[in-house]
Amino acid sequence: MFIKRIIHRTAVAAAVLGSLSGAAHADDLLAAVKNRGEITIAMEGTYPPFDSRDAKGELVGYDVDVAKAVAKKLGVKPVFITTEWSGILAGLQAGKFDVIVNQVTINAAREAVLDFSIPYTYSTAQVIQRKDDSRQFKSMNDLKGLKVGVVLGSNFQQLAAGTPGIDVRTYPGAAEAFSDVASGRIDAALNDSLTINYLMHTSTLPLRAGGSVGDTNKMGIPYRKGNPELGKALSQAILSLQKDGTLKTISTKWFGADVSTPPAGHE
C-alpha cells in the first residue's frame, strides 16, 4: 500500500509539473498581446528623426513608423508610452510596457538581461561639433582630454566611458547635449550617425557632423526574457517588412537611404 501511494503521488506530481510547464508556455507575452489586441511600445518621444512630437502633438518618426508596421504584422494596435531614455530599459524589465522601439543597440550587456528581435536598423556612432571647430575627430582617442556629451544610459555613454581620458558629460536626451555643444559648454557630443545627418538638415544650431567612430551598431526590438514566441513573431514581422519593401520605404522617407540592411562589408 505504501509503495502504491508513492507511485500515485509521483504520478500526480509529474502531471502537475507538466501542467505548469504548459501554462508557462501559454503565458508567453505574445498570447497576452493577442488577447489584448494591442502591444504597448515605449520610446522617448524626444528623439528626432526616430520619435518626436509634431505640431499637433502626434508622435512621428522612423521608429514610430516601424513600430506601427510591426504591430500591423502582428495584427494588434500599437499603444505608445513615452519615457526618458535613462529609465526605459529598467521600465521594460519591470513590465511597464511590452517592448521598446527606440534605436536600442544590441550588445552583450543588454542581451544578458533582455532578448532582442533581429536588427531593423544599422548605423555608426558619430561625433558632432561646432561648425567653427576645425579639429578632426577620427577616432575615440582624438577625444581624450575633451568634454564629450552623451545621453545617459546609451551605448554612446559606454563607448565614451571606455576610452580613458575623455571627460564624459551625461544628458537626459540628445537635444540637451547638442545645445551644450553649440553654446561651447562642451567640446563635442556622440550620437547616432542617422540622428546627426537628420539634424544637419533640420536644425539651425551652428553644428556640423564630425568623424564616425566605433563599429557598426545593430538596433533591434528588446523584450523581456522568457517570451520566445513574442520574439519569434517580432523577428518574423521585421523579415516580412524587409521582404515586402516596407522598411526600405520608411528608411528612404526619413533618411533618403535604406538603413534597415547592413552596410556593404558589414553583413
Q: Provide the CATH architecture of the largest domain.
A: 3-Layer(aba) Sandwich
Low-confidence stretches: 1-26
Q: CA-to-CA gap between the ends?
A: 66 Å
From N to C, what is the helix and strand string? HHEEEEHEHEEHEEEHEHEHEEHH
General form: globular
Q: Using only CA atoms, what is the Rg? A: 22 Å
Secondary-structure-based class equals alpha/beta
Q: Biggest sheet: strands, sense, closure?
A: 6 strands, mixed
Compute the number of strand runs: 14
Fraction of residues in β-strands: 25-35%
Q: For the largest beta sheet, what order do the strands appear in spatially?
A: 7-13-9-12-10-11
Q: Class of the largest domain, according to the CATH hierarchy? A: Alpha Beta
Q: In terms of topology, how is this protein built?
A:
Blueprint: H1 2-26, H2 29-36, E1 38-43, E2 46-47, E3 51-53, E4 59-60, H3 62-74, E5 77-82, H4 88-93, E6 99-100, E7 104-105, H5 108-111, E8 114-116, E9 121-130, E10 147-151, H6 155-161, E11 167-171, H7 174-183, E12 188-192, H8 193-202, E13 207-220, E14 222-224, H9 228-243, H10 246-255
Parallel strand pairs: 1-5, 1-6, 10-11, 10-12
Antiparallel strand pairs: 2-3, 3-4, 7-13, 8-14, 9-12, 9-13
